Amino acid sequence: MQFGGVVLAKLEKQAVLLLVVQALFAVGNALSGTFVPVYLWKASQSYTLIGWFTMAQYACSGLTFWLAGKWVKEHNKMNSLRAGIALSGLFYCTVLLLAGEAQRYAIPLGALNGVALGFFWLAYNVVYFEITEPDTRDSYNGWAGLSVSGAGIVAPWISGILITSMSGEKGYRLIFTLSLIIFAATVILSFWLKKRKSHGTYNWRHGWQQLSQKGNAWRRMFAAIVAQGVREGVFMFLIGLVVYISTKDESKLGTYALITSLVALASFWAAGKWLKRSNRSRAMLIGSVMIAVVVVPLFWKMSYTTLLLLGIGTSLFIPLYFVPMTSSVFDLIGSSRESAEEREEFVVLREAGLVTGRLIGLSCYLIVLPLNDSALAITCLLLAVGSFPIASWWLLRPLLKNGSYIS
Question: Transmembrane residues, as ranges (predicted)?
Fold first, then answer.
């Protein structure tokens, strides 16, 4: 099977296995993660509670990246990966046991999920850097996006059907249980990933040292990553919640995820095939502008139809922004031998930028929505934070020029 000029069967076996682990992790989260905000909303009817759950998740994820960086760099990064998967299972197990009382523990639950995501994605990003090269990253990211989109096609759709077809909370209990089983299987599979060599000493102040150096390309890159995070901080949870609030039907939310993931599957495939280092800047410009433009139909009317247009439009154009953005970050990490040896610290720095941006975006949500939760207010918020990726492109133009990393 060929994708983006790379034959999957010819990839290093460890790379293929890492993609499978990521796909299973995505399936586990897609089954239940889409519906956790809905579950909390149904119990609380509070935008504020959802916001603080998400705030705890983002903050603890970023803190875990920084603290676990020493473990990943100096000890066994694969154990960090497994810990993240296991803690994700524990998160859904806890929600399952708390049932209707989960809303009372929204902040601790958000913190637990954040720690789980921090452990997993820190280790995953370091290993991803180690098994890819500049010429294969766009294709690998295309494959990764393809697998995540594939996970999002069927899992939420099945979850939505199960929830609506079962009385009370039986459907939620079933999907949380299924996620728990998938995470357990993923932990077992991860033991086939080889232990990778550790080297060097973790530098706790590395990120600050990079950003304090005048002319350092990471100052520009960090700002671009923050802009990326501002959008993610709101879009990652609010769109699904708004779809449910607009329809009051979990099955329609599942169908929404099915349709948008199908579109994303095709667009990530196309992005991996078409994108090269030479056309990243043009792709990022088109992608960043269009994922803001697709919010505009919501000003006409916030309905399932207009939200579906938003979802389809985002799925079509997000790869043009996301793939070059991700590839450029890791190319900068690998721009010199010294930089590559500090890959764990740079992955932590990248996450610090994302978390900073997510917290900024979420803070805007917590300011606006508790005061005014009208369709117009939500649409204005989505357009405002959804336009920040344009700033990412503008900041990265010098770094993207001819694939060179100049300040």
Answer: 16-41, 47-68, 80-99, 105-128, 140-162, 174-193, 222-247, 253-271, 283-300, 306-326, 347-368, 374-396
Please, are residues 346 and 335 in contact by the beta-carbon 8 Å criterion?
no
197 lies in a domain?
Answer: no
Of 168, 170, 130, 154, give the one whose Cα is nearest residue 27: 154
Neighbour tally for 126: CB within 10 Å: 22
Cα dihedral sign for 237, 55, 321, 128?
Answer: negative
CA dist., res. 86 & res. 109, Å (int): 15
> Measured between alpha carbons, how far is 229 from 349 in angstroms, rounded to an integer?
13
Domain-located, residue 4? no
- Residue 6: strand pairing partners: 3
Give the three-state DSSP class for 201: coil
Cβ-contact 292, 379 below 8 angstroms: no
Stronger pLDDT, 232 or 150, i.e. the higher one: 232
Q: What does 112-181 look like in DSSP terms, one character per residue? A: HHHHHHHHHHHHHHHHHHHH--TTTHHHHHHHHHHHHHHHHHHHHHHHHHHHHHSSTTHHHHHHHHHHHH
**Structural domain count of the chain:** 1
Q: What is the rounded CA–CA span in Å between residue 24 and residue 147?
A: 9
pLDDT digit string, tens, across residues 100-141? 788 899 999 999 999 999 999 998 888 887 777 766 666 676
Q: Does residue 48 lie within any of the structural domains?
A: yes
Report the CATH number at residue 349.
1.20.1250.20
Q: Can you tell me the distance from the alpha carbon of 273 to that of 6, in angstroms, rounded to the nearest whole number?
A: 9
Rg (CA), the chain: 20
Provide the domain limits for residue 184: 12-191+208-399
270: which residues sit within 8 A by CB, 6+ positions away? 319
pTM of the model: 0.86
Count of H helices and E strands in the chain? 16, 2
Rounded Cα distance between 394 and 389, Å, is: 9
Query: Phi/psi at 104 (nearest 5 deg)?
Result: -70, -20
